[in-house]
Amino acid sequence: VGLFFGEVDPYLMFALYNNSIYARHQTFQYQSACEPTASSHTGAAHRGFYV
């Protein structure tokens, strides 16, 4: 439950695909995950000046 059937039993999935029970549907994931960057505590203003 919750797993892709081709990962659980790839040989059975291949047999089901060859017998036209399942069809191949290829998708692409265009999102990317960037690693967070460390925040910099240095600013452009002088230390004595606060907004």
From TrEMBL:
It comes from the Eukaryota. Residues 1-51 form the Voltage-dependent calcium channel alpha-2/delta subunit conserved region domain. InterPro entries: VDCC_a2/dsu. It holds the Pfam family VGCC_alpha2. This is Voltage-dependent calcium channel alpha-2/delta subunit conserved region domain-containing protein. It comes from Cirrhinus mrigala (Mrigala).
